[in-house]
Amino acid sequence: MSERLKRRFTLFLVLMPLLVFAHDVSSADQEILRNGGLWAYIQVGATHMLTGYDHLLFLAGVIFYLNDFKDILKFITVFTIGHCITLISATYAGITANEHLVDAVIALSVLYKGFENLGGFERLKMQSPNLLLMVGFFGLIHGFGLSTRLQSFDMGTEQLLSKILCFNLGVEVGQVLALIPIVFIITFSRKHPQFPAFYKAVNWYLVLAGVGLFLFQMYGYFNGH
What we know:
There is one protein chain. With about 220 residues, the protein is mostly helical. It has nine helices and no strands. It has one domain. Helix 3 (about 55-65) runs parallel beside helix 5 (about 100-115), helix 3 (about 55-65) packs antiparallel against helix 9 (about 195-220) and helix 4 (about 70-95) packs parallel to helix 7 (about 130-150). It starts with a helix and ends with a helix.
């Protein structure tokens, strides 16, 4: 791998928030929501997605698999619709689950995408599942994960739906802001003759990250963290 490509790979990794604690609900966020009104829910939603390493890793894996910008837009739209459905409906209905278990499934989605991008199904002589359906399915799971986070906050009872919608809007803003540099790096890397090496390195990173995040979440579940 050339030095230029190595720098792009390093930049790609830097853009993926690697500190697992950055994705947690914090007392500072709770204070912002308590005092900031509806705008605060947009702010916290955007911040939560920008530090949502697991969500962004999955989306990066989806983008790596696609060559056409129209396809990227289509798949991201399906993912967005999926996570909007569960984020809004599950939060409004008060449906929740252990956040470690939900995040463990999200970690598996990262592993899945890296595995698929590396031709894992072909090596097993299996046909890959329909990607658009899988992206929509994982979008629902990712949205449920966002819902469990939102429900960890004390939102009160007033303007509940408005607060949920504002948080969801913030998530979408954060997602767009995060995807711009990711799409930029991947698109320009495709023009490099050593892109196959970059592609392989990043997708192996997705596989290892998925495994690591899954084990981390299962450890948290069994140890009550």
